[in-house]
Amino acid sequence: MAIQNVPLIAFNRGLVSKGGLARIDLKRTALAAEIQTNWMSRVLGGMMVRPGLGFLGDSRADAQAFHIPFVFNLSDKALVELTDQHMRVWINGSLVTRVAVATQTVNGTFPANINNWTDLDEQPSAVSSWVAPNDMQLLGDGFNASIREQQVVVAGADLNKEHAIRIVVARGPVVFQVGSASGLEDYITKTTLGTGTHSLALTPTGNFWIRVKSSLDYPVKISNITIEAAGAMDLPTPWVAADLELVRFDISGDIIFVACGSSTGAAAYQQRTIERRGTRSWSVVLYEPEDGPFLTENLTTTVVQVSDLFGSVVINANKPIFKATQVGMLFRVTSSARSVVKVIACGLNVFTDPLRVIGVGTDRDVTVDVQNVTASGGTTVVLERSADGIANWTNVATYVLDQIGLNFNDGLDNEIWFYRLRTTVYVGARSTTLDLIGKLEPITGVVRVLAFGSATSVTGVVIKHLGDNGDTALWSEGAWSPFRGYPSAGVLHGGRMWWAGKGKEWGSISDGYFSFDDTVEGDSGTIARSIGSGPVDNIQWMLSLQRLLMGGELAEFQMITSNLDEPITPTNFDIRPPSTQGSDPVQAVKADTMGFFVRQGGKRLYQLAFDANANDFSSSDASAIVPDLFEDPDDDSLDLTIVRVAVQRKPDTRIHCVRADGKVAVLIFDHVENVACWVLVETDGLIEDAAVLPGSGEDEVYYSVKRTINGATKRFLERWAREMECINATVSKLGDAFIVYHGAPITHVPVAHLEGKQVVVWADGADVGYDASDALIYTVTGGFIDLAVAASDIVVGLPYNADWKGTKMAYAAMLGTALAQMKKIGGLALIARHLHARGLKYGMDFDNLDSLPQMEDGVAVDPDFVWSDYDKVSFEFDGDFESDARICLRGMAPRSAQLLGIVPTVETNEKI
Questions:
Q1: Which residue numbers in the chain have pLDDT < 50?
Q2: Residue 313: which domain range?
Q3: pLDDT tens-digit profile of 213-269?
Q4: Among 32, 369, 786, 892, which residue has the fewest nearby CB atoms (within 10 Å)?
Q5: Are 332 and 464 part of one and the same domain?
Q6: Strand 53-58 vs strand 736-750: parallel, antiparallel, or unpaired?
Q7: How far is CA 342 from CA 222, 389, 418, in A?
């Protein structure tokens, strides 16, 4: 027989699967746990009863929600809630909510006309008009703007109250501003609104003027300009509930770029941007680049003809090439016979598009047409030249009379220059037609298809002016459309916006997240490449680490350059698979230079890290020691797969893996200290989503929890309490879905969201929710509980236990090992902090637990006393001799317990 005091001083080993319980040869396993639920470990080694979950509110219509953490900086952040085709925003734990105001626009949905909107169209070319109900159309001419404005009368009771204007742009972009007088923008600075729905907040001190404007020479459309009704801001989105788990996003400044695949195998959704124009002003907008990306140029004999060079047009083809599912796509057309730049407008500083001139001799001839110019004392037009077609224009010729067919040749053989015509003096109200006609360089225009007519005809608007309207075989289709599909994932990396899906990836031009102009030359040009290895139709995620990484269904991919520190350019990159695990459709996350993704099947969490010796990324199983955590070997009917992953960085790095059964497996991770500790979090309900926002001391961890309340299904957004709020002070936030009351002493405590539930109560520094036998006292009835004694600082929430069961004890052995030998635990010593006198129970199993000693140092312990530090001699552990003696510990909310170490006394009775 032998006796040994065993120091178990590291609770940062976490769970080990049942299949590894006998591996007492590994120190890691010997210090691990078979059960560790609701105990949160720290990298340093201790563990505490996990913080409670504070109730913030219900999801919209109690529907399943997916949350996007929006971070502008540490103090400027929000949580974007997505439910079935709806979006709301939480800031500092509260929904962005509109107050009730009597103020309203007049004729804001344009049911029969736009008469109440003042016509400020710039003459003679710009025209605003009513087309149909919910359809105000603005049409400029490229320079002169179509403008409508309305003075909104603010009721006296509404002064200095926040108002919000809802603007629905059916076809953008539209310029929008709000001011305290006509033409001013002191309430909402002039901003461009894309196609989508916008809710913009202002606080007027008097009447205000709303102005919408467009100078584009194709029609834009607005369907609604109204004042928001009272209630939570709610913007429509396209993503249905079944597809929310496929939402992928990245953030740049005030813009969230969003891609989303389809769970049904249908085409992915067109990308969106979620845009913030102020703390309480948000938009959901179509992501609509105007210059690409495009597929390979047509190689057939099919020719197309566009009815005009700008504005609304019809595209006709000599063969059937169009489909109804191509509506919304871009269509690029290059002139085949000659090059023409043409603008019809009037006014000062009206100019044509630039004309690129190349070649030698007469090939450099430019024909100038200046028509309908006032003859005497009249309009002056200059021909200007620029090296890049963007800036530094210089005057090379002047025209003051109607002149047609004038020839200009710069004599600059083999040089590339750009030319344009510009009005420098304008007299009269007649239109001016300016034409430039070149010889060699074709002009390429872009049309956005808006409506399907037939297989040989579609209508659209010209986004970039065309060169002529003759037949041409030089055309190409946009890479994205309902017919071709849209990317399923996106990420910002190396100064570009990257999208991937359908076996390809696309990178924007450098620092131009909305541009895919393939005429941009050099290293900053756009990138389009087929992934081209294995089944790559579905890209499950993209991640920006030292390299750009992507998760495919059967492999992970990286974009490599000739040197790790070199940027990706159109000519310096390759795509290779550093891992062939295959990825599940769950967003990957990153922590510093490492990435974490869910392996195909959802039953393993893998780590991607860069190996400097191999100069390559490699993957490893971060869940190797806990395979049972995501796949029960005894019951394959249980779905324990990972459905969501979120990363927390403070106070430690924690990877929250939401399981399909509503529990969360948390990996506490520290690469330097070699800590990889798994614990389990559960609550009275099903956790469906996790999201994290950064905090100054501790990050803000949010769970979306499905609970059954009084027989009804409710979905709550709940936020982890900070650890320092859970040490049993005056206010102790240990309880789930908890609320906090602080004020005058009360007994009648409102807890309406937990109707019918038994609850724990912490009031004025004491646990008052349990009786002497640890039975719950209070049940929420009629939305309240009634305390026996009034209190002024109260926390009420759902109860939960924290259970820990150690691995097999293999100590005090004289014959080599204590495994399979009779042993018992006769005593137990604790080293703890913030330990409530009734905050810990212990025993051989969870059905037979004892409370902490009620006498310490010969003095009775107050049942509500909290030990700031607890380091006492061993007390009796009521154990029996058995071959598999274990230690079980249980903490109970709302009582705190932070364990730093335990020392069991193990006695063996070995047999030869």
A1: 812
A2: 295-336+443-478
A3: 999 999 999 999 999 999 999 999 999 999 999 999 999 999 999 999 999 888 899
A4: 786
A5: yes
A6: parallel
A7: 28, 16, 15
